[in-house]
Amino acid sequence: MDILEIIEKKEKNEKLSKEELEFTIKGFLDGTIKDYQMSAFLTEIDLLGLTEEETINLTNIMLNSGDKIKLDIKPLADKHSTGGVGDKTTLIVAPLVASLGVNVAKMSGRGLGHTGGTIDKLESIKGFKTEMTLSEFENQVKKIGIALVGQMGNLVPADKKIYALRDVTGTVDSIPLIASSVMSKKLASGADTIVLDLKVGKGALVENLEEAKELGNLMVKIGNMNGKNTACLLSNMDQPLGYAVGNSLEVIESIETLKGNGPEDLNELVIRLSSLMVCLSKNIKLEEATKKVKENLYNGKGYEKFKQWIEAQGGDLNTLKVASKTQDILADKDGYISKIDALKIGKLARALGAGRLTKEDKINHEVGIILNKKVGDKVNKGEKLLTVYYENKQVSEEEILNCYEITEKYTKKPNIIIEMIK
Ligand code: URA
């Protein structure tokens, strides 16, 4: 077997055997298959796809490329978002379900590109520790039902190496490559319930609804086949989620949501994600789980769990700060907001310093954007569209106004949840 033969076979769109996929992944990890050969292979997959069987095999090969976490804790649930703008759901969902006895032992990533990362958001809280040993991690979950760290152990090294290459070869949006990347990591992290938040729209990895459905169904199938209770929500990412974009601004919005004052779209999404995690983990009806989740969102128990969690990991919520310089951007005409380009807003927040272009970039946790209007809202000329929180870097008013479309005709508020796959 050699890699040239395998690339050529894929080029002819012939089915690859488990052994050929294994040979490719192992060879890439040990360096015998070079970056340029793997790039050609990934590009062929991006262009031609993989069959369901090939994707399932690829997921298992990636899963077996490194350590797997096994915790003696039940029920244990995990969630995964494919990344969006203003997506702070983990900060709310994790303590909310933990307050209902569903344990969360979660690993999260940093932001890259126009999307944010949970670890960056949590680091806006001074003292918050994002690294732990496995036994510290396990003990904390046993004690308070929740722990969240950055990367730990040598989980799915194949994904780390492949993802870095996909990032620079334009192959991040391939359905089988996303499915195998996400599911190998979720399966390695040891939870018995997996809830996926698959973002669809302008600011998401997947823009097309049909492709999103295909990906969602595939990931749920892979999860269930591996004995995990798996569900997937397709959620709208045409406009930012909630009003806040930027690290500390998003933590503050999460706290407000946990106090029962969240924006409508964010509220709805966290309730649905949490309810799915509770329903699948406790094997109860979705309606019953939803009732419990709403109770703990509005009676303060979710917020109490959030404070306990942040304190357990050394964070001091009194240190949360936002940038002192602000600029209001005003509407240049009367009408209804018909579009807010999530991708452009994400890129502007990054330009302010809230995100990074390369892994080495330093971010400013205090800068970002607070929207004042969302799609479907009426706006008068001169009324505030949003506020920019900035420090050393600023973006132009014109660039911000370019993110908005204001029309005379009323546009309906989009539904945040598009579909549930269970
Ligand atoms: N998130 C992942 O972890 N992997 C992908 O391929 C895409 C989104």
Please describe the structure with a list of short key phrases separated by commas or semicolons.
422 residues, alpha/beta, Pyrimidine Nucleoside Phosphorylase, Chain A, domain 2, Aldehyde Oxidoreductase, domain 3, 3 domains, 6-stranded mixed β-sheet, 16% strand, globular, binds uracil
CATH topology of the largest domain: Pyrimidine Nucleoside Phosphorylase, Chain A, domain 2
Provide the residue-averaged pLDDT. Answer: 95
- Tell me the number of helical segments per DSSP (H or I, 4 or more residues long): 16
Radius of gyration: 21 Å
Oligomer: single chain
Bound compounds, each kind once, are: uracil
Major β-sheet profile: 6 strands, mixed
Shape: globular
Order of helices and strands: HHHHEHEHHEHHEHEEHHHHEEHEEEHEE
Number of strands: 13
Spatial order of strands in the largest sheet: 3-2-1-4-5-13
Count of the domains = 3
Name the helicity range.
Answer: 40-55%
From the coordinates shown, what is the CATH architecture of the largest domain? Answer: 3-Layer(aba) Sandwich
Structural write-up:
This protein starts with a helix and ends with a strand. Strands 3-2-1-4-5-13 form a six-stranded mixed sheet, sandwiched between helices. The protein has a four-stranded antiparallel sheet with strand order 6-9-11-7, sandwiched between helices. The protein has a three-stranded antiparallel sheet with strand order 10-8-12. It has helices at residues 3-11, 18-30, 35-48, 52-63, 89-98, 118-122, 134-144, 157-167, 175-188, 209-225, 247-258, 264-282, 286-298, 301-312, 342-352, 397-401; strands spanning 76-81, 103-107, 146-149, 193-200, 229-236, 244-245, 325-330, 335-340, 368-371, 378-379, 384-390, 404-407, 417-421. Helix 2 crosses helix 8 and helix 12 packs across helix 13. It has three domains: 3-48; 76-318, Nucleoside phosphorylase/phosphoribosyltransferase catalytic domain (Pyrimidine Nucleoside Phosphorylase, Chain A, domain 2, 3-Layer(aba) Sandwich), CATH 3.40.1030.10; 322-407, Pyrimidine nucleoside phosphorylase-like, C-terminal domain (Aldehyde Oxidoreductase, domain 3, Alpha-Beta Complex), CATH 3.90.1170. With 422 residues, it is of the alpha/beta class. The radius of gyration is 21 Å and the shape is globular. It is built from 16 helices and 13 strands. 45% of the residues lie in helices and 16% in strands. It binds uracil. Uracil (URA) binds at residues 82-83, 177-178, 181-182, 185, 205.
